[in-house]
């Protein structure tokens, strides 16, 4: 991802992205390419400072998601109240679930299928902080 920041500086904005914001973008995207590009695009058009980054995310993020947030919101709202309660519990354990694919329930499998969750080693996590934020706002 560092190479992408270099490319951005060479081709799009000679000032580049401040190092501290680079770190925030990398952390928030969790290695998810689409989330990374969304955050870089948000930075490019809004040019927030390190101090205003969090509020810029809250106010502007949905504009840069190309409708992805609507798809996730609709998918979550169509679930039963019991499933939504399970999703809220997952949100509460946003650091990930220590479990294998054989031990997860139908809700977790559904969220994996639609790309809200991903598996890494023996842990299941939200795809990125952006996706987690959409889930929080949806429920």
List the helices and strands and how they pair.
Elements: H1 2-11, H2 19-29, H3 33-46, H4 53-60, H5 68-77, H6 81-92, E1 97-98, H7 106-113, E2 117-120, E3 123-126, H8 129-138
Antiparallel strand pairs: 1-3, 2-3
Helix pairs in contact: 2-3, 5-8
Organism: Paraglomus occultum
Protein name: 1452_t:CDS:1
Short account of what is shown:
The chain has 139 residues and is mainly α.
Structure notes:
The chain has 139 residues and is mainly alpha-helical. The protein has two domains: 2-64, no CATH class; 68-138, Orthogonal Bundle (Arc Repressor Mutant, subunit A). Helices cover 60% and strands 7% of the residues. It is built from eight helices and three strands; from the N terminus they run H-H-H-H-H-H-E-H-E-E-H. It has helices at residues 2-11, 19-29, 33-46, 53-60, 68-77, 81-92, 106-113, 129-138; strands at residues 97-98, 117-120, 123-126. A three-stranded antiparallel β-sheet has the order 1-3-2. Strand 2 (117-120) and strand 3 (123-126) form a beta hairpin. Helix 2 runs antiparallel to helix 3 (33-46).
